[in-house]
Design a protein that fits this description.
Elements lengths: L1 H8 L9 E17 L2 E19 L2 E7 L4 H19 L15 E5 L11 H16 L5 E19 L4 E19 L2 E12 L10 H17 L6 E7 L1 H13 L4 H5 L20 E3 L22 E5 L2 E2 L6 H7 L7 E2 L8 E2 L3 E4 L6 H8 L2 E13 L4 E13 L2 E6 L2 E6 H6 L1 E4 L4 E10 L2 E9 L2 E9 L4
Parallel strand pairs: 4-6, 8-15, 14-21
Antiparallel strand pairs: 1-2, 1-5, 2-3, 5-6, 6-7, 8-22, 9-10, 9-14, 10-11, 12-13, 15-16, 16-17, 16-18, 18-22, 19-22, 20-21
Length: 465
């Protein structure tokens, strides 16, 4: 397929300033969900086709086809070029892509156990027994569900600058969600495992133990103290730190948002955005995490991105175009969900790096406040730097000691205030948030993580008893 794409590139007429890339993307996968004792969905999906982009005289042309023969791709390439030329008559914004970034190579996920070799009954058993154990635990369990997912994808990318790249990625995931109800009070527990790899990543999931663990926790949350309300000291666990650094800070680092003046981090490269000692990275080369890949959807080699070093902002997430526009280097952040869409500046595995403090030491510094754990959602406004996240549980911190459990709780604040009001960084970071990120109608797998993080003056939502 790479040879066909390269042959097409060599068959079109372009000027040295013009840019054309052709990307073949194919994905197949399956998803199985059981909810409240019944299969909610069983699906097998396959998508595949060719995406062609042309940047001519400051305008883009983009088209996709499902046929993969040379004649069809060549016809589509000429169509994209024609669209770009037509659009160039109406654009005044300068848009170009530098000619010095050329990549060649291939990447592939290492599989110890290919999930395609595992029979369906074994996959069904994982989720059926997980859901059943949780649902049958007690009458307080109002809803239980479990989901198994796997996906196998490949991308081939060539462009007229000389890039020629192939990449194969395999992801797997197992999730559970349990909801408990006592009168008018409801509590929710969600958990998942998996990443980039094979069956070996979920093989040791014990359905009975996992289902029981969630059901027991739901009952404890129904009996827990109500969360407090107001501004206070907060210890964010690795999951909440990971969600924050992905959602609130990471999205603000995406260069397309910077160029559109839709980010609080515009113009802040080499400026202080956090306290001394705090370091933030995004590394899609870490094995087995959900946001791991070797080449992005533009064919750029993935590498570790240094977002914040000792509190100083150092880097944005770049596509080839944003890097050219801002006079910076591309860093493998151009990700596309499938062949029907164009690459966007996206994250991979984002995390706050290790500090040197134990949880008990951070609690002593906090004196009074809350320790919040296991984030499971929220929203962010990158242009204003505002965020709101929900957590499955937390604990009171009283006189420097972690004490009573609290139930589902929310937390809100301003993005830069978190990094600037950090008073303690835990000793070991963990990739605790394995999620799926949405942007511009596209969804890609990501990871967020960090250590326990002590932050002052965050707003916690709840009604104190």
């Amino acid at each position: 397929m790479l040879d066909i794409l390269e042959n097409v590139i060599n068959s079109v007429t372009l000027t040295p300033k013009d840019f054309l890339d052709i990307r073949y993307a194919y994905a197949m996968g399956e998803s199985l969900t059981v909810r409240n004792g019944r299969f909610d969905s069983i699906s097998n999906q396959t998508t595949g086709g060719v995406a062609i982009r042309a940047l001519i005289d400051n305008a883009w042309g983009f088209t996709t086809i499902v046929n993969t023969d040379k004649e069809s791709i060549l016809k589509a390439a000429n169509k994209a070029i024609k669209m770009a030329k037509a659009g160039s008559k109406y654009t005044k914004q300068e848009r170009t892509i530098g000619d010095k970034w050329v990549y060649e190579g291939s990447g592939a996920t290492k599989l110890e156990i290919d999930p395609r070799d595992i029979d369906k009954e074994t996959k069904f058993e994982k989720i059926v027994k997980t859901e059943q154990t949780a649902r049958e635990y007690s009458d307080t369990i109002a809803e239980a569900s479990a989901t198994y997912q796997e996906s196998h994808s490949k991308e081939f990318v060539v462009n007229n600058r000389g890039t020629k790249v192939s990449n194969k990625t395999h992801t797997i995931r197992l999730m559970k969600n349990v909801v408990g109800r006592e009168g008018t009070k409801m509590q929710n527990v969600f958990d998942s495992i998996g990443g980039v790899g094979g069956w070996e990543l979920i093989e040791n999931w014990n359905p009975e133990e996992e289902g029981l663990k969630s059901a027991v926790l739901v009952e404890k949350l129904l009996l827990a103290r109500e969360p407090p309300s107001g501004k206070m000291n907060v210890i964010m666990d690795p999951s909440l730190t990971g969600v924050f650094i992905h959602e609130a800070f990471g999205h603000a680092c995406e260069a397309d948002g910077i160029i559109a003046k839709n980010s609080i981090l515009e113009g802040k490269i080499d400026q202080r955005v956090g306290v001394e000692g705090i370091n933030v990275y995004d590394d899609p080369t870490i094995p087995q995490l959900r946001g791991t890949f070797e080449y992005d959807s533009e064919g750029t080699k993935a590498r570790k991105r240094v977002l914040v070093e000792d509190g100083i902002l150092k880097e944005y997430f770049h596509t080839l175009e944003t890097a050219t526009t801002l006079g910076m280097e591309p860093n493998g952040s151009g990700r596309a969900m499938n062949f029907n869409v164009t690459p966007q500046a996206r994250m991979g595995n984002s995390y706050v790096d290790d500090g040197d403090m134990k949880l008990e030491e951070i609690a002593e510094m906090a004196k009074d406040g809350v320790y919040l754990k296991d984030s499971y959602g929220g929203y962010v406004v990158p242009a204003k730097g505002q965020f709101y996240f929900t957590c499955q549980l937390g604990y009171y911190i009283e006189n420097g000691e972690i004490t009573d459990m609290m139930g589902n709780v929310g937390m809100s604040g301003m993005t830069l205030e978190v990094l600037q009001n950090t008073f303690a960084i835990g000793e070991k970071w963990d990739a605790a948030f394995q999620g799926t990120c949405g942007k511009g109608g596209q969804w890609v797998p990501v990871t967020g993580g960090g250590p326990n993080l002590g932050v002052s003056d965050l707003v916690v939502g709840g009604t104190k008893q």
